[in-house]
Specification:
The protein is an alpha/beta fold and about 270 residues long. It contains eleven helices and eight strands.
């Protein structure tokens, strides 16, 4: 599906996630001349993409001849207060602001914008780098159907998109899918370390862990079968998997740990909200 924008797109922040989004947009046919980049020092991979497409990046932008159709805010939350007030001056009456900054609320953006400004807050995750991410987005009351469609197309360039109407859900979303890839990476670490402790060579243990986790994830994704059903299908009564699951599914096992981890991340997301 070709990505067309009636106007320009201003991307503020071309780091890992901003760069992944930009790569997805360009791959879907967004014309490079439609793109404006505000970033003082894009990372090497993004800079190489910009060079190939003839897109310049700058630390700040002069006044624009016409407001952009969309401003995508992908700067780190800790520099948002420094960056966004100046960025907001580029917004016009028909501009939609699309933020992927964690912990920054709709109201936090609205206070720097004109009345009735359209703002969408979104939480993507790191598999966006391989176009396998999932993003949850919430619009404010001023986002039009056309603006929502535009944001949907931009976010879908790197994976699946879900919309919610309750901004409060973004905290548990952040805890589950936003932070979730780190939990999976740690699972790979732990599984490999357990393999070494059981006697496997470290290189083989890590290869087994990586392929097992990635392969099982792809299976649950492609099959459409419930995870519990897949688990039961590979668990023979009194077999090796059953023995392991008795440990993992004990009262103080993985379910309890995961619930505590997600609660901690969700709580921290609420604390960081501005």
């Amino acid at each position: 599906m070709t990505l067309n924008i009636d106007g320009s797109l201003l991307l503020a922040g071309a780091g890992n996630m901003g760069g992944a989004l930009l790569a997805g947009w360009l791959e879907r046919g967004l014309k490079p001349e439609r793109v404006l980049i505000q970033d003082p020092a894009p990372p090497p991979a993004t800079q190489a993409l910009l060079d190939r497409c003839g897109i310049a990046a700058s630390a700040s932008l002069p006044p624009l001849p016409t407001p952009p159709a969309v401003i995508v805010v992908a700067v780190k939350p800790q520099v948002m207060d420094e960056v966004f007030p100046a960025l907001a001056r580029h917004a016009g009456q028909a501009t939609v602001v699309l933020s992927i900054a964690a912990g920054r609320t709709l109201a936090g953006f609205e206070r720097h914008l004109n009345d009735h400004a359209a703002v969408v807050r979104a939480m993507p995750n790191t598999p966006a780098a391989i176009a396998r991410g999932i993003t949850v987005a919430v619009p404010n009351a001023h986002v039009t159907a056309a603006q929502r469609h535009l944001c949907q197309a931009l976010l879908a360039a790197v994976g699946e998109v879900e919309w919610v109407s309750n901004e409060g859900l973004l905290d548990p979303v952040t805890a589950v899918s936003g932070s979730g890839p780190a939990y999976v990476f740690y699972l790979v670490e732990c599984l490999a370390a357990a393999g070494v402790e059981a006697g496997l060579p470290p290189e083989l243990a890590m290869k087994l862990a990586r392929h097992t986790v990635s392969g099982a994830g792809e299976l649950v994704n492609r099959s459409g079968i419930a995870a519990a059903t897949l688990r039961e299908s590979v668990t023979s009564p009194n077999g090796t998997t059953h023995a392991a699951l008795e440990v993992l599914m004990a009262g103080d096992g993985l379910a309890q740990l995961m619930a505590k981890a997600v609660a901690a991340a969700s709580r921290r997301s609420r604390e960081l909200a501005k």
